[in-house]
Structures are given as C-alpha cells and as structure tokens.
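Hello forum,

I keep getting stuck at the same step: I have a sequence, I want structure tokens, and every attempt I make locally crashes halfway through. Rather than fight my setup again tonight, could one of you with a working pipeline run this one for me? It's a single chain of 263 residues.
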Amino acid sequence: MSFGEQLKCRRKELGLSRSELAKQLGVSQSAVGNYETGVSAPKEEILLRIFDALHVEPNYLYRGSFESAGGDASPEERTLVEKYRALSPAGRQTIHTLLDALCRMQGEPARTIPLYRSPAAAGAAAPAAEVRTIPLYTSPAAAGFAAPVFGEDYELIQVSGDVPPGAELAVRMEGDSMAPYIPSGSVIYIHHAPLANGDVGLFCIGGAMLVRQYIRGEGGAVRLLPLNRTAGEVLTFPTGGVSGPTCFGRALLRTLPLPESAM
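Reply #2:
Ran it on my machine without issues. Output:
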C-alpha cells in the first residue's frame, strides 16, 4: 500500500475520523483527505505529528511503498531503495516531494511568469533565450522547509529573458524591510553561491528566513542589514559566535544599486 493508503488504514484501525485526526494535526479535514488520496504530501512538522497521533514508526506508513522493489529491480534501483530507507522522515518526505514535482513537470507545462523589459528593450527584437524551470517559493520562509509541498509552498515556473542565468530558485519578498530596492511582493532570484561583502542574500536565522544585505567587518563580525532602515532590525553576529546565520544563496539584483550608506 502507498503512504496515503497506510495512513487511511491506520486511522480507521484507531477509530478516528478524518475530522478527529485533522484536529490532532492542526490541519483541515480536506488536507487529511489529500494526504490519504495522494493529492498532496504533509510537511515535515505535520508528518511528525502524524507519527505521534497514529502511534506508529515512520517505517509503518512507508513500508508498502517499496515492497515491490525485489527480484525485478536492478542493482542500481536496489541501492536507491536502501539509501531511501536509511533517510530520516524529513529526508524521505523531501524525496517524495521532489519526485512528485518531477512527475508533474513531465505531465504539465510549468507556468510562465511575465518578465520585466525596459522600454528600450521592448522596442527592439530580442534574441531567443533559453527557457528554464525553477521553483518559485510563496515566501522566504517556504524556501526553508525541509520538505516543501508542491502547489502549496512553491510552484515550478519557466524563466528566460531578463532573469539572470544563474537563478536557481525564486522567492517572494514579504514586508518592506528591503524597500524600495526590493518591494514587498516582488520576486527575488537566488543563486547558490558564497556572498561577497555588500551582497544581498537569503538567510536562515533561528528557524526564520530573511532577506538581508551581508556586511562583514574587518574583524570578521557579520551584520545583516535591511535596506529600509525604518522597517527592519540590524542583526549582528560577533566573530566566533556559536550560532551564526545560514546562507541559502545570493540574491541576483540587476536593477538598482545598493545604498552607499549600507556599505
């Protein structure tokens, strides 16, 4: 049986309705139905609640997914199955999410978002650009999920033209902390690369995801600055600090220069 079928079977064994299970998980009844039918997959924190609510080990709900991977499987396939079984629940859910997204990519065209072109460029014939597919996360926080849910936390978009070729993912800016250079609701393109002094990056700090300008002082201390000084907190991390920021990548900004006062 699939994960969803095992979930439904165990729920019924415990005499729980979808509504009762949904209350324990902190989600809607329809979300539980989607988990059971395979329409969507639970996020990492919801997945852990499911294990607790149903009083099962992770292997119980996933055990049927690979029972058929036996005599007809190639050595490479059996190796992949063993690696999957060795993963944590969060790692397994990440694999599920990626596979679902890849399958949907093959069956459905990704949405194309309108790209900005300057008035001068709009009047000229532009050469054909390669179209690529990258994930667009609904918020900076969504980009930090260990197992984001396709269609809920992100969608696959096609990009070309004015989008920098190094863009590997995109996030939507929330709030005015980086305005007017990055307005709230605008799309930021991220490249997985080390930051240079003055770059804007996507950071994880204490579980929260933030877009900030990276400043490294002569002594090694790091400051993360909002470009809008009135709408965001300046975060400072001294040299040798135990818990520093984790950088997810560099924001590819090609429009307005950063303010000199922040450098």
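The first helix runs from residue 3 to 13. If your local run keeps crashing, start a new thread with the error log.
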